[in-house]
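for the record, two folds in this file. i put them one after another cuz i was lazy. first one right below, seq on top, structure tokens after. the second one comes after a little note so u can tell where it starts
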Amino acid sequence: MKNSENIDNTVESLQEEIGGALLAVALGDVRSMEFDPTYVKENAGETWDSVKEFFSDDTQKEVFENIAAEAFFETGEGTARSPLGFLRFTVRNYEEAIIVIGWQNSSTVIVTLQPDPEHIPTTIQILETTIDVKETE
């Protein structure tokens, strides 16, 4: 995948800056449907009954497939440039976790955080620095 050479630096930077709030990091390619969970915090989600299964391989793949479908079939961002520019990041703020998605072409970087919005700007800044998510086709 396009950004795989930088993902270790991304995970390391996220761990340094946001510490235990980092739950998972993954790379995905929405065209090929490849999905690579590159980091999952040990015991991530164990304290929340409602999200224990979220960190299983099957559930992570299902979440990625939903993200891919949304990006290319519902929003149209995969095929056309918005008048506002290219889609760079999306943030999903759930009760039990926050998911930050960085977009570049068909590649995505998916970061799962504990549900504290203060970590969103730091996460986006790190992704901008370590992974090239500046522009999509």
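(here's the note) second protein begins now
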Amino acid sequence: MALAAAPVAVQPANATPALSANDRRLVDLADAYEALDRRCNEHTAAHRYDHTSETDDEFDVLTTGFGPLEEECAVTPADSLVGVIAKARLCLSPTARGCADNEHAFSIADDLCRLQAMGGLHV
């Protein structure tokens, strides 16, 4: 009597691993931040030669959107390198680099140290 082989679940090579809720949120925040940064750059390019108090006010309204995204990113713990990389994406923005606030850098460092201590940092 031959034994049937147990089925093996094979995941397609291009399948994306499931993300935790925190990592998914961090990726979404990074996407939103990059979209806002693009809108700010587009606004600046469109009004390069027509600076008015109205266009400056429009830009100020746009840039107020960065704070809440940055704050939520900083307080959301990453569960994997995907989340840490999402946090790091915020730091790539020229708009972010122009700020003196280092909450993101500290948050990334905290996550890396925590993940390493938990044995969850796999490269």
